Each structure stands twice: as structure tokens, then as C-alpha cells.
Amino acid sequence: MYHGAQYGWIEVVSGVMFSGKSEELLRRVRRSLIARKKVQVFKSHLDDRYGGVFQVSSHDGQRLDAVPISKSVQVAELVRPETEVVAIDEAQFLDDGIVDVVNALADRGVRVIVAGTDMDFRGQPFGPIPQLLAIAEKVDKLHAICVVCGDLATRNQRLIDGKPAPAEGPTIQVGGSESYEARCRRCHEVPAVDRSQTEIPIGAAEGH
Ligand code: ADP
Ligand code: ZN
Fold it and tell me: Which residue's CA is minimally distant from atom 20 of ligand 1?
């Protein structure tokens, strides 16, 4: 048994880009440090927008770097036996193995906090996030503000030279505000999706 009778669990912080997932993850990590928990933070190496690492510090002077990882198995390898809280940012870029890894950690008594965007730029479920949402004890779905109309944004709008990117592009393409915008369902545009193939005929049932 890990840490005596301590219970572990999984929390997922999900939602569109710019919705504050990283802020929320860091807030939870900071509070864990205040509670003097032993914490480790990981994030996908693909996201080097902030210089490869981000740092969390608590008011009592503890500091923590996020460790860049490229594969889920690295979390299992790098986690220390005494660690009580594991936080993983940008989890949408990780392989499906992360589901088993975080489950095993929670089974061992670890509190696991996972953040990641839930949909790709086409509006499709992104990587392992759907599985993580399903198995988590606690789920928070955050929203941003649609930069077009000001409503709540739920979708990642990919842009190429300022124009909506076609659906055929690669699913993973790391970028910030120069290549992505937060948009609502109405303002989200994915050109070149042949809607005639996918359109669901809502309200088209034949009358009797
Ligand atoms: P995420 O991890 O979800 O991408 P971050 O925590 O990195 O989000 O950043 C959230 C911050 O982004 C917000 O607090 C806000 O200052 C800023 N921001 C930029 N664009 C938007 C937007 N369209 N809607 C809301 N917040 C935005
Ligand atoms: Zn909108």
C-alpha cells in the first residue's frame, strides 16, 4: 500500500486553448505545495512556447520546474515513490498509454491532475483526453472568450496566414495566438470538410 490509507484520484482540467487550464493546474499545484505535499509536474515536450519549462513557486519559497516528457511511460519512470501529487500539462499531445499510467498512480494513492485541450482544431476529440475525462473522479471544462463574437468559446480555431485552416492539416501543430484563436461553436470554421458526407439530417424524419 502506498502512503498508508491515502486515497488517490484523477482530476482533469480541460477545455479550449486560452481557457486558463495551465493557470488552473498551476493554482492547484501551488496549493498542494502550500499543504507541503510532494509534487511533480510534467508537460509534453512539444509545447516549448514558454522556453521549455515552466516554473511554479509557492509563497514559502518552494520552486518546481515542469519536466518535459515525450512519452507517457516517462511519467511512470520519473515519478518518485514519495510523490503525492502528479500534475501533467498539455496531455492531449501524449500517447494513449497515459490513461493506464495515471490510473496506476491513482490506485497507488497519488492525486493526479491532468490538463489538456479536449478538441483538436477540427472539433474532434483530441488524443487521450476523452479517455481521461471518462475515468476521472473530477472533471472541469473551462471556456475562453470567442474572439469573434464575445460568447463563450469552446473550439480551437487554427489559422494559416490569418485564415481558417483546412481540415486536412496535421492534428498536432503547436502554436500560440499567432496560429490559434478561441471561438464559439458558431464562429468556428473548418473549411474543406465536405459537410454533405457528414451532415446529420436533424428534423428530417418522415411524417406518418
Ligand atoms: P490554456 O492553458 O487553457 O491554454 P492559459 O492558462 O495558458 O490557458 O491562459 C489563460 C489566459 O489567456 C487567460 O487568463 C487570459 O489572460 C488569456 N487569454 C488570451 N486570449 C483569451 C481568450 N480568447 N479568452 C480568454 N482568455 C484569453
Ligand atoms: Zn463566436
Answer: 18
Taking the CA of residue 146 as reference, the ligand 1 atom at the shortest distance is: 23
pLDDT tens, residue by residue, 27-77: 999 999 999 999 999 998 886 665 556 777 666 666 778 999 999 999 999
CATH of 9-142, one of 3.30.70.100, 3.40.50.300, 3.30.450.20, 3.90.180.10: 3.40.50.300
Residues comprising the chain, all counted: 208
39, 85 in Cβ contact below 8 A? yes
**pTM of the full predicted structure?**
0.89
Which ligand places an atom closest to the C-alpha of 147? 1
90 is catalytic: yes
Average model confidence (pLDDT) across the chain:
89
**Under the phi-then-psi rule, with left for phi > 0, alpha for psi from -120 to 50, and beta for the rest, what region is 88?**
beta
Beta strands at 63-69 and 39-44: parallel, antiparallel or unpaired: parallel
Cell of 90: 498539455
Contact 157, 166 (CB under 8 A): no
